[in-house]
UniProtKB/TrEMBL annotation:
<keyword id="KW-0547">Nucleotide-binding</keyword>
<dbReference type="InterPro" id="IPR003439">
    <property type="entry name" value="ABC_transporter-like_ATP-bd"/>
</dbReference>
<keyword id="KW-0067">ATP-binding</keyword>
<dbReference type="InterPro" id="IPR050093">
    <property type="entry name" value="ABC_SmlMolc_Importer"/>
</dbReference>
<dbReference type="GO" id="GO:0005524">
    <property type="term" value="F:ATP binding"/>
</dbReference>
<protein>
    <submittedName>
        <fullName>Fe(3+) ions import ATP-binding protein FbpC 2</fullName>
    </submittedName>
</protein>
<keyword id="KW-0813">Transport</keyword>
<feature type="domain" description="ABC transporter">
    <location>
        <begin position="1"/>
        <end position="218"/>
    </location>
</feature>
<dbReference type="GO" id="GO:0016887">
    <property type="term" value="F:ATP hydrolysis activity"/>
</dbReference>
<dbReference type="Pfam" id="PF00005">
    <property type="entry name" value="ABC_tran"/>
</dbReference>
<dbReference type="InterPro" id="IPR027417">
    <property type="entry name" value="P-loop_NTPase"/>
</dbReference>
<dbReference type="InterPro" id="IPR003593">
    <property type="entry name" value="AAA+_ATPase"/>
</dbReference>
Length: 218
């Protein structure tokens, strides 16, 4: 039986096999080492988001002969909430009844950070990502798209020791002048992490600044 992996060690990602989502199928063979940041590239519709959604447990199936492991542990049937992933999806998926800061601190506490530290960490991350202090206590519906995007990035960086980071166009909603500084914030935090990271982006500057390797799909 699969136990919650709250204290499971990190390790390499191995994903191989055929992923199916509705009518769409895609053969993948992806390995990412701890600390590696891999850019998943390819044209619109090739299946980048499908791969990330499958890894997060949000949809899609892997053929019975396929492999999805982290540090050797089979993740295929582990409930999403037990996978210890840090994710940024194209739609920010914030918890609607929580404030910006609570969305971030909640992710930190779920990862084992004590509540007081989690609040401090959330405030620091939101500051670092340029969310004005008077917006920290607002709920997502009171924030702009770019502000919600900043909260989603902060949330993905708040969890301690995630086993895998999945970043799907993390800077897509960010205005052009802020993109460079936010890319630097992301780069700094990712450099400190032992988790394997998969980044999906159409921006070559992101790939150059953030990724250590490119995996073309299709
Ligand atoms: N909910 C869904 N159910 C079934 N098929 C879907 C669904 N969403 C997308 N698809 C199909 O899956 C395929 C891959 O889509 P996906 O979003 O993974 O591509 P992508 O590489 O991330 O594209 P983009 O660069 O445009 O974001 C597409 O052909 C798309 O039509």
């Amino acid at each position: 039986m699969n136990e919650p992996s709250l204290h499971a060690r990190g390790g390499a990602l191995r994903l191989a096999g055929t992923i199916t989502r509705g009518e769409f199928t895609l053969a993948v063979d992806i390995s990412v080492e701890p600390g590696e940041i891999v850019a998943l590239s390819g044209p619109n519709g090739v299946g980048k988001t499908t791969v990330l959604r499958f890894l997060a447990g949000l949809g899609g199936t892997l053929d019975p002969d396929g492999t999805y492991t982290l540090g050797g542990e089979d993740m295929t049937h582990l409930p999403p909430e037990h996978r210890r992933l840090a994710v940024v999806f194209q739609e920010p998926r914030l918890v609607p009844h929580m404030t910006a800061e609570t969305n971030v601190s909640f992710a930190a506490t779920l990862s084992g950070i004590p509540r007081a530290d989690a609040h401090r960490r959330a405030a620091e991350l939101l500051d670092e990502l340029g969310l004005p202090p008077n917006k920290h206590t607002l709920k997502p519906t009171k924030l702009s798209g770019g502000q919600r995007g900043r909260v989603a990035i902060a949330r993905a960086l708040a969890a301690q020791s995630p086993r895998l980071r999945l970043l799907d166009e993390p800077l897509a909603a960010i205005d052009a002048p802020s993109r460079g500084p936010l890319r630097d914030v992301l780069a700094r935090h990712l450099a400190d992490s032992d988790a394997p990271t998969i980044l999906v982006t159409h921006d070559p500057t992101d790939v150059k600044a953030l990724a250590t390797r490119d995996i073309p799909l299709g």
